[in-house]
Amino acid sequence: MLRLLSSCLLLILCFDAAAKLQKYNSLYTYYSKPPFIVDVQKKAGLFYDFARYLSEKNPGAIFNVIYIPRKRLEQQLKNGQLDGPILGVNPLWFNDKHETKYLWTAPIYNDIDDFVSLKTSPFEFKDITSLYKKSFAGVSGLYYVDLNELVARDKLDRVDTIGDQQVLTIVEKGWVDLGVISRSTYNYLLKHKKIDNNFHLSTIPHESFERRVLIPQDQKVWHEFLQPILLRLPHDPKWQKILSQY
Fold it and tell me: How far apart (Å, rounded) are the C-alpha atoms in residues 61 and 23?
């Protein structure tokens, strides 16, 4: 009975918030990589599916995913110009460890950043010193926990590129010792035969983290709408079926 009452309360809150969301319909991301964004023109990818999923939860509303590069998106956020949430991010990446600067939802996706190298010269992470005098490929503009600090101390060399798939290209060409890539992206590329299976993932990854939704403080209605939905995602067969495609 308590579970039923709790579910009913969440639904009431969700529908009430949904009714107030008519003037908001933009969902933002700075990711242009699979599985989150697969094809912009065709609106294919997990985030587009999430937008359609939300539209079904709020009949009459159509939610749109908009890609904006990280620096510009963060600037709009700081200037109070953002009129919607940012998908798939984490408090640590926005200097909000205590979750006081912005509103945060439950996870939309659990992910891992892996150390990737070639099978012919595999890299295994043991501790921070195992990275000394190595070179790694990463995506320009992204912050890598601990790695950025090692680069600043000249203990680790960094080569920047435009995306995860390009990270793998640089590793494959032997230009660096290793790369850092999201497991979600790696698995998608491997599953859809976009890359060859000649890479090695370290047993100990770089980090595990939750991809959540950041909401500006002045848009509490977004949190009221999204939080109940995201709390139920792990138990929703329809959402699990969507995830299985990626």
Answer: 9
